[in-house]
Amino acid sequence: MNIVRNIFIAVFSIISSIAFCMARDIIFIEAESFSDRGGWVIDQQSMDVMGSAYMLAHGMGAPVADAHTTFEVSTKGKYRIWVRTRDWVAPWKVEGSPGKFQLLINGQQIETTFGTEGAEWHWQDGGNIRLKSGISKISMHDLSGFEGRCDAIVITNDLKFYPPNQPEELANFRHKYLGLTDKPIDAGKYDLVVVGGGMAGICTAVSAARLGCKVALIQNRPVLGGNNSSEIRVGLSGLIYQKPYTKLGSLVDEIGPVGHWKLWEAQQDSNSVRSQKIFEVIKNNPEKKEHNAGPADNYNDAKKLRIVLTEENLSLFLNTHVMNAEKAGDRIVSVTGKSIITGKEYKFRGALFADCTGDGNLGFLANADFRVGRESKSQTGEDRAPAQADRLVMGTSVQWNSVEEDTFSPFPDTNPWAVQFNENTSHKVNKGDWDWETGANRDQVVEIETIRDYALRVVYGNWDFIKNKSVEKEKFANRKLTWVAYIGGKRESRRLLGDVILKEQDIIQGIKFPDGTFTTTWDVDLHFPIRSNNFTGEPFRSRADMRKIEPYQVPYRCLYSRNVDNLFMAGRDISVTHVALGTVRVQRTTGMMGEVVGMAASVCKEQNALPRDVYSKYFTELQKLMEKGIGNPGW
Amino acid sequence: MFYTIFHGLLFLSFSYVEASKNPVIAFQYLTDDSVGLDIYEYYDAAGLLDGYTAHVNTPVCEDSLCYKAELEFYWNITGNFAEFKLMPDRPLTKLDHVPFSKSDYGKLMDILLNQTPSFVYLKRNELVSKNTDENALEIDGISSATVTQVKEDMVEGAIYTCYTLWHIANGEIIFNIKEHTIKKLDKPLIHKLLGSKNLEELFFVIENIDSGYFSIFLPEILSLAEEYGGYFIKSVIENMPVSLMKDDIVQNFFSTNFNQLEHQAQNSLLEKLEEVRLKKSILVVLIDGILPGNSLQNEQIIRMVIKNTNSENIEVLIKMFEVLRNRQIVVSEDLYKELISLEDRYESLKKEVRRFRNIHDKRH
Ligand SMILES: Cc1cc2nc3c(=O)[nH]c(=O)nc-3n(C[C@H](O)[C@H](O)[C@H](O)COP(=O)(O)OP(=O)(O)OC[C@H]3O[C@@H](n4cnc5c(N)ncnc54)[C@H](O)[C@@H]3O)c2cc1C
After folding, report:
1. For site-directed labelling of A587, which of A69, A153, A322, B357 has its Cα 20 to 30 A away?
2. Residue of B nearest to A436 (CA)
3. How far does A9 lie from chain B, in Å, by closest CA?
4. Index of the ligand 1 atom closest to the CA of residue A45
5. Nearest to B240 by CA among B214, B264, B266, B202
6. Which domain holds residue B189?
7. CATH number for the domain formed by residue range(s) A185-257+300-389+491-628
């Protein structure tokens, strides 16, 4: 564990003192930096659009506990309050403003109710208040538990002042009044900087670190795991330990929780020590068999964190969203990450970079070539490609679950703001699994707030109907909605292009590439929105169309960018077509990509080479590492 | 509604036989079990494509034991499975050759119509578990060998029949049907589908017709857009060829409807309108859409208004300044400068610009 890491972990993990700064008569308070966040949570999903994270009152229908912080004014007098917020259902032109909240100053409620106007993020006028000089306490008080949101608060004694709304002006304003340094804080120099801490990113970072690279792993959430974290709750699929590199997957095995597929493997070979241990875990915790949307512990965030933290050459930066990349020629020289809590900026210099963001965010910042959506049949020759290319992708899921209580469990009326259901259109189920999927026709990066919000309107509207209005409501009387994701589980965004763009027919026909690496085993599994004839709204469920495959070795050249010389990628943003993504996107497979990329990075370091050189000059070195494997599953 | 077909009508009635055209093979298809199927088009009374049908005769295998399932499958024009009909004297059978009951057929119909049954991610050999203890997968039952979750989506005693038939009804054939229908989209068929009041078909048409047909059917499409609104109108906007945005009918249509559109649909529309010259009627409506709390959209509208006005329709600019002033709209510094500079271009705007500037200056 090196010193730099210690410092940064400390900085990022503390629910720190608030980031406000008084300059003249304008006080800017980031909602995310409230010293006590109460029941509010930080949402950073739209940072690339908004420039900041925001606080969300995700109470699933029960108002969340107040968030508090303090601020100081030097002179007593009249101050005007501005709150950056929005009415999150206004884009659908529905009434009801479910995201209502209030502000309390020194315990006194101010008159305005926030979150009640405007389809877009904007500064809602909170009117004037009187303040004494010195420290005052400010609290955010949620009124509904239905996703009220606040980005920032401005308090000023310039009563004529309007804070800016336009992205650039707002960014400058924020920067200035938060008292941020002009230049990002130096967060060190690394052999490999890994952006994104899902299964692919964790495996990339650990693999490279174990092979001697000095690594930074940057993740924009407080937990590791991405889709496999307790925040999104997607189980791990795909087979590991496949021929010809039968040790690939050992790190995935070490990091990944025991769940459906480990149990499946154990059943195929029930006498091995590994299988017996897996049986033991399942015997003690049978709930681990629930693959998606299961209990939080099923996803074992703590284990992932522990493994990463004990890695000597690895520095972890949680709560840090990478928003900028600096290049020299065709290489990235540094990336800048912004704290989702304090807004502070950190610069990470590196020789090599890995985009494990799922969304291809780093590649996008570095102008790497990429594709979004479906290629046309003439472009790829794939059976399942459409005649015309389009922007359709596999969508985002907001999964949810409920439990049976002993007594009646109420749920509020969501009319008129949620999506309205009836006996024909509602889904009388206890849980929303993978097939609750929205936004397939939308941009998964730019429109993620809309996509997630629509999914929430669907989940709440459906739950309200089946609990309160349906003829079958008795069945749901004691059921309580216990978990609804507020971080959308994404499947597909940008696919960065490498020297090889893998196509479906390569896989189906078993075309062999000389640089085969990890083996993909999941059938080519594409999702499509389900349209129903009696539902006029945007589709919110999907169907899966599978095409059977034999285990297939994916070429190394899918794992680095074709035009940014020192950029690797691992995860669902590698160089494949839309159709081919259908097989490689599952997380034990994306984890193995990470193992390979970590190994390749170590070869680059050893040989002072770039990712492409590993293919052209040093592939045997990589092969040796793949034969050896990198994990210590410890069974 | 599908239950009704089981009331006395269990056997094949060949609806397409009554149609005006002989069925034509649309394409051939190989199932997962390598059974070749001829997929026929079928037609309505007017001779227009109405869906697809295939005579399915497939082995259903359980370990080494195989039996036959023979029936007629129907898909709608957009590729969704619609129904099955039985062959005379060929009832489906379960294990031990017990024939399906009426309710078994009803259940089978529900299963085949379900696009996300619980067994969608299971391989055939995973449907029945060898483990009956706590090591069984979540999908396993405690007391029964058929996995519990799967059991609900299966006709008891006929899981392999359900599994095999579902994969034929809902497999890759759907893509092939869609592709085939897209090739068949001609004037009469589009006309029929647009009149169908079937949302699935309406979406299918607007997503798959070329710009020529879009233009020919523009009035029908716009009237459907008005009728369904919401997400449908957004899809119409997104699929509408830019060239049509110039059209009077289109601009008038959106002049009437802009303020009722959902926010994202408005944004999609503005993006399309950026590409063409805008008429006064729509500019006035866009101006009315300038609201506090819509800062990014406001900027876009204001810039579009500036771009599309000149000294001949200066009243449009005057109206915009009025709205900015009355609704206390805050704009970015760049846009502010652009607005202020308009007084250099249009003498008659001087007064409005001065009033706007006064308010603005007071605020900063
Ligand atoms: C509902 C659902 C069901 C699914 N079912 C399965 C299944 O059963 N089995 C299976 O294996 N897979 C399944 N998948 C697919 C799988 O979860 C995804 O393909 C997975 O995301 C791949 O992992 P990844 O590491 O590439 O990306 P992710 O898990 O998305 O991880 C990327 C991480 O990077 C972070 N990040 C993004 N941008 C930045 C940035 N700029 N700075 C810092 N950090 C950033 C993200 O917050 C995220 O945590 C499912 C997906 C969904 C949504």
Report:
1. A322
2. B116
3. 36
4. 47
5. B214
6. 185-276
7. 3.50.50.60
